[in-house]
Write a structure and sequence with these properties.
Elements: E1 7-8, E2 13-15, E3 20-22, E4 30-32, E5 47-51, H1 55-62, E6 67-70, E7 76-78, E8 81-87, E9 95-101, E10 104-108, E11 130-135, H2 147-163, E12 167-171, H3 177-184, E13 192-194, H4 196-206, E14 215-216, E15 230-233, E16 249-254, H5 261-267, E17 271-273, H6 281-291, E18 295-301, H7 303-312, E19 316-319
Parallel strand pairs: 3-4, 4-5, 5-6, 10-11, 11-18, 12-15, 12-16, 13-14, 13-15, 16-17, 18-19
Antiparallel strand pairs: 1-2, 2-3, 7-8, 8-9, 9-10
Length: 331
Amino acid sequence: MKDPLLEFSDKGIYCPKADVYLDPWRPVDKAIISHAHADHSRWGHKKYIAHEHSVPIMQHRLGDIEVAAKKWGESFSINGVRFSLHPAGHIVGSSQIKASYKGETWVFSGDYKLHHDHYTTPFEPQKCDVFITECTFGIPAFRWPDQEQVMEQIRNWWQQNAANGVTSVLFGYSLGKAQRLSYHLNDAIAPLLLHPVIYAHNEVVHSVKPLPMHQKLDQGVDPKAHRGALIIAPPNTQDAQWLKKWEPYKTAAASGWMATRGARRRRGYDTGFVLSDHGDFNELNTAVRASEAESVICTHGYTEIYSKYLNSKGIRATTADTPFEEEPNES
């Protein structure tokens, strides 16, 4: 394509006509950010643009940054290129970034899911000429069960553990998964406790999207007074020393990767629940079709496999390398 509206550079996805980057991975002067996860929203840019719900989360994570807040669908122009942000359904504030210039439209999906989790603003498909899509779960093996079914599985596991005097420790990414679990497990059958990192994230997210504010797990919480509790904790605390005071306990992870039994064995959890903040294989296909794009660029995930699949279906698809990476339990 001659003089593409967006191109992949060593700093990020770049719009030469507007001299602005989308989710850049190296410091730049101006960045439009799809969402507040660390691999998409990085420290060091001079100016940021993001959806208004992402702004306080980015400030919590990045500190004192200069950031302009935009509403869904609000159009803004940079050097004649029209940009707008549209719901991606991934986490609170997550956006697809639409760029239009002289009748040509590109959409960068960021990360997204189509199934409505009843907390995050649901995905809204955008028609475009070129669709840049993630494909974290871009193979047919990944097909998600119904969310309510998964939440019921978690409640049953928690209830069984509580009946046996066992603490339940559920690991989920601190931004996205943890809020979703906090919201849907509000009908507590026993105490529900939040790791301090997750509690801090919930406080920030609550300021833009109300959440049940469960009890913070701090040093003053007595395990003997919280028998059968459910603790929601970040995955990187799986081997933390504080867990020993809660023995006996059982562990589980909430992640799309739990759809593969091997992933559960490798991570050493007692069990796993299939719950992802990304689209499964069918959702990716639905999003691509809904975009009506003439060309699709596949980034981060099963890029080669998914692009070959799209080409086999008559959709022109290529791949592009990016450093966007999903931690095992972010997804």
